[in-house]
Amino acid sequence: MNIYRILGFIERVAQYYQGKGYGSASIDSEVRSVKKLLNSSSDIKIAIDIGGNIGKYTDALMKVFPEAEVHIFEPQKINIEKLKLKFIEQRNIKIQQLGVSNKNDTMTLYSNKNGSGLASLSKRKLDHFGIDFNLEEKVEVIKFEDYWINNLNKREIGLLKMDIEGHELHALKGLGEAIKHIQAIQIEFGGANIDTRTFFQDFWYFFKQHNYELFRITPFGIQKIAMYKERDEFFSTTNFIAIRKV
After folding, report:
1. Three-state secondary-structure class, residue 83
2. Which domains, and CATH codes, for the chain?
3. What pLDDT, in 10s, does the model give residues 110-161?
4. CB 211 within 8 A of CB 10
5. In 112-237, at which residue ranges do the beta strands (DSSP E only) sit?
């Protein structure tokens, strides 16, 4: 075997066990990690699932926090229909056909197929994977701060999760004053951030500015990111949890 292939394999394994690239199939681990960091299931009265897709994250959330009131934001019409059918008997789950950004607007959502989990407000360049973002759908997006004021009456939020394919930083900036009333924020970071030209550094300083501690989810548990390092700019799906300091 070529020495570079061996070194590449070792590199990938080491990165994975640091949590870098671990986030593509770790939903149950993500929710358990939130619970561990908050240290109490009773802390979550309200949870927000931004980028709900077909509800897998909310499923995992309800197993751990069954009494939580969950607000799902999903812009794709086909997924909204699936979500309404899936959660038809659960009155504590509120479904909104909306995207979340840093403004209130009508925007274009690009995707490779209807209902795709890759759908993004950016037309991603994924030719190297043989993926063509040739589908377009007009969607409504909002600043979450407005929803928090008008629909949640400025209540405290236990968890806000974002998985919106590279536009997490825009949505974070649209939290406004709500960010002072959220205990935990979970974000996904990965290849879509290449397309939106947003970096882990942007997130690290954003959370530092707003008095949050940042953690990465790994196969071994939760790793605190005490300071920014350039080697943390890793563009395979990785999940982070930010915890507001008391």
Report:
1. helix
2. 3-244 (3.40.50.150)
3. 999 999 999 999 999 999 999 999 999 999 999 999 999 999 999 999 999 9
4. no
5. 135-143, 157-162, 182-189, 212-218, 221-224
